Amino acid sequence: MLALTVLLLPLLSTASVHNHRSHDHSHDAAKRLPNTWYHRSDHPVNSLFKRGAATDGVTYAVVGADGWAAGYPAGPPATLDPSSMPAEWTAALNDAVARKAIPDVPVSTNANGSPVYPTGVDPNSPEVCSATFKCRIAGDIWDAPDGYVGISFDDGPTDASDTLLDFLSANNQPVTHFIIGSNMIWNPAQFTKAFNNGDDMAAHTWTHPLMTTKTNAEVVAELGWTIEIIHNSTGGRIPKFWRPPYGDSDARVTAIAREVFGLQTIIWNQDTEDWSLTNTPPGTTPQAINSSMTQWLTGSKSPGLIALEHELSEQSVASFIAAYPVMKQNNWKLASLAQLMGNNASYLNAASSTADVIGFSNILDAKGGAAASAGGSSSSAPGSASAPAGASKT
Ligand SMILES: [Zn+2]
């Protein structure tokens, strides 16, 4: 995958900032590239998030409106109950296990925030390969191609997302958002704003757990509900990328994400530690973050950077805004993760981030009104999704 990515990057232009409101897709590198496995419209994941078919009269609720948040797990519970997830997801997991596509790695336990495997299980062995222990599973993404900074933000949408999105929009800078599914219930307007900016919407789980501490079924529920709410809020788009909270994945979890949902696992190679700015007491300072980021950004461009950054608080957003000119001044090429992958495609069922959904066009075509304004028509991508006041934070 990385070799392919590097091969394809010369075809990319980071100047080709995409705009959902524009119908000009001529910049899409994807049109010049062969399809990959991820583009298969017949991937089984397509059947996991169909909210019925056009013949059933299915529409997508307007994001944030009455009824839009119905049917999802309540609150962010400590643990999702997998028994309440759709039977299709369980069946897809069972199928993957039967195919022996999911390694039989023991579930870790959460010891004060760190995953601990049973005695005798080596987290760095190829069989386990825990990302927390810096073991890199083949196919997972840790590095950006030389000269690139892949820009992404975890834990949104939040109240602080507005500041970030306004800055990104003013700078024509597309990024990737790793969304906490349950956060969308409280901040639908920020989600819609990011989507309409043309950003990649990716999955970060529903309750933000250490994923290797979760059973196979719990892993499916965490990813499935997050994909479901993104899907139902973007006119049927199925995210291609996910990032494990705390970077905690292993061979089992990565395989479930890939085999059940077709997800590509993204980690990072630099941690800004911006997440700890609002800890009590704070784990770092804006000055310390700026200092370490400046050090990376004035250093080697090989490999490129994938920095861990958050839209968790105004402070974490401010740390990115402070570093942005340093990225520019040091001639880094800045890209969303979908752009880094060489084809600007952040969804499994669309050829590019701005392209129409494939495999679901019948649903989008079938209904006007709410369906069209929530997800855009099939001819115009997301378009003019309105952002009603919706749920308030309590
Ligand atoms: Zn996170």
Automatic annotation (TrEMBL):
| BP-aspect Gene Ontology terms | cell wall organization; chitin catabolic process; fungal-type cell wall biogenesis; polysaccharide catabolic process
Which keywords label this protein?
Answer: Carbohydrate metabolism, Cell membrane, Cell wall biogenesis/degradation, Chitin degradation, Cobalt, Glycoprotein, GPI-anchor, Lipoprotein, Membrane, Polysaccharide degradation, Signal
Q: How does it sit in the membrane?
A: Lipid-anchor; GPI-anchor
Q: Which GO terms describe its molecular function?
A: chitin deacetylase activity
Q: Does the record bear Cell wall biogenesis/degradation in its keywords?
A: yes
Which cofactor is essential here?
Co(2+)
Lipid biosynthesis found in the keyword field: no
Q: Outline the segment boundaries, as ranges, of region: Disordered.
A: 368-394
Location (main, coarse): membrane
UniProt-listed Enzyme Commission number(s): 3.5.1.41
- GO cellular component terms, A-Z: plasma membrane; side of membrane
Its localization reads: Cell membrane
Give the signal sequence positions. 1-16
Question: Could you say which enzyme class this protein belongs to?
Answer: hydrolase
The residue ranges of the NodB homology domain are 147-335
- Record-linked Pfam families: Polysacc_deac_1
**Annotated SUPFAM superfamilies:** Glycoside hydrolase/deacetylase (SSF88713)
**What reaction does this enzyme carry out catalytically?**
[(1->4)-N-acetyl-beta-D-glucosaminyl](n) + n H2O = chitosan + n acetate
Task: List the protein's name.
Answer: chitin deacetylase
